[in-house]
Amino acid sequence: MDEEFSLDDPTQLLDSASDFAHYPGSLNDAAVKDFLDRFPLPPSCSALQTNSDVPGLENTLVACLERVFKTKYGASLIPQYMTFAQVGLKADSQIVRCLSCKTVSSFLKNFDDKSIYAIKLIIDCDIYPLLLDCLLNGDEQVATAAIDAIKNLAQFPEAMGIIFPSNINEATHLGNVASRCSSLGRVRVLSLIVKLFSISSSIASVIYNSNLLSLLEAEIKNSNDTLVTLSALELLYETVMQLTEVQHGAEFLARTTLQLLHSIISNSSMESILRSRALMISGRLLSKENIYMFVDEPSAKSLISAIDVRLGLLDSQDTDERESALEALGGIGSSIQGAVLLLTSFPPAARHIVHAAFDRQGGGKQLAALHALGNIVGENRPEDGVILNGDAEESLRRLVYEVASESSKLTPSGLLLSVLQQAAEFRLAGYRVITGLVARVWCLMEICSKPEIINIVTDPTAETTKIAMEARYNCCKAIHRSFMSSKLVSDPALSGIAGKLQEAVQRGPYLVRKHTEATPVVMTAERF
């Protein structure tokens, strides 16, 4: 068989590999074994080197072997042919390198016994340094596959010494790797560190104690390369939710990230896109209830104050940065403690949101503010977390009435009705605001004073999209729930509202045509 593959005509291999690679559905071990009996791995892998100039062979064979190694049977053969993976990791071809990274991943994921044998094979074939090289110098797909392989390697306790060598001068120490590579390479190393961090608390402890997260901090502080700083911020934005779930991650974010974000947001000389991303990260970070276990109140207030000041500078501008700032405050306001801080700071940072939410000329700014207000009033919080403490509630009520008195609508109910009379996307946000706000008695009374609002939220034909229908229905249910638990339920003058709400709640969120029975029609026959 080896002799056949040494011939200049690899047509048989190409045709069979193509059929195998494009076989619809899943492949079982029997099918893989049958293919490998006809085309053993050694000559097939060798063909990637010796016949790479044959049109279509490389792509087809890579796709074929990738499917082979994804099966249990195919993965069981990898230890015998790890040297082929080793050679593939050094290949000039990017797709071959990507295949080799995925092969290592398959080997590690399918290795039943998490023993020293697997790690010994990785060490003997010098696989880890080659994976790092793929991470730094491969294309995007190769780098992603290399990160996945290293993540799978990290699942083995015996691999900790390989990935995190105790000797900081070791060439493969991630700190050293980051210090000697390109800016793109550093971003990829940071991505690897963050992904490893989220695997387990034990790995998070190793990374935290090795001070590797300081590399992320350093890149965010890097004022010489805007693209690198933006990439580091993007990475932090994508992973901040994962980091807050791990104690050391939350500690890192509380200890250093808040100060960094504050400095970026406060720096008027920085690129607007960097400030916008820092604003969005701030919103994500302070939206998590558990982060306040690690963040002291003065630090959180200081960051909110920086956003407040920035919004003041952007007050007359309709910019993306302004929308990002409003969304950030909305993110912060989705947590109970965040909402309290926004409403009880002096002056309350939430004032920007309330004012912008009812500015009909605001466009995207108004839409962002409405959703932010929906978060602050508790639309996305559990029922027992909607109402805030006394000071925060009084501040919210005062802000809404203040904006209403300065507008042509004069009352909060007028403001809310004006939102529900706007375009569909604004109505959707308006439903969210009312859903949370109506838990307050003063708001319930305002809504009951406007029959037009009741008519809209109970009208099954008011919306045409599924998400809007559900938002309208949730709003209707919230009004009904608040009404039935209030003293207003005993007011005879409001009995019509109670009945209308009850009927709408029973009807459900979607427009259901009433079933009508067929009825005979009697008419005089036409005569000629």
Automatic annotation (TrEMBL):
<dbReference type="GO" id="GO:0043248">
    <property type="term" value="P:proteasome assembly"/>
</dbReference>
<dbReference type="GO" id="GO:0005829">
    <property type="term" value="C:cytosol"/>
</dbReference>
<dbReference type="InterPro" id="IPR011989">
    <property type="entry name" value="ARM-like"/>
</dbReference>
<dbReference type="InterPro" id="IPR019538">
    <property type="entry name" value="PSMD5"/>
</dbReference>
<dbReference type="Pfam" id="PF10508">
    <property type="entry name" value="Proteasom_PSMB"/>
</dbReference>
<protein>
    <submittedName>
        <fullName>ARM repeat superfamily protein</fullName>
    </submittedName>
</protein>
<dbReference type="InterPro" id="IPR016024">
    <property type="entry name" value="ARM-type_fold"/>
</dbReference>
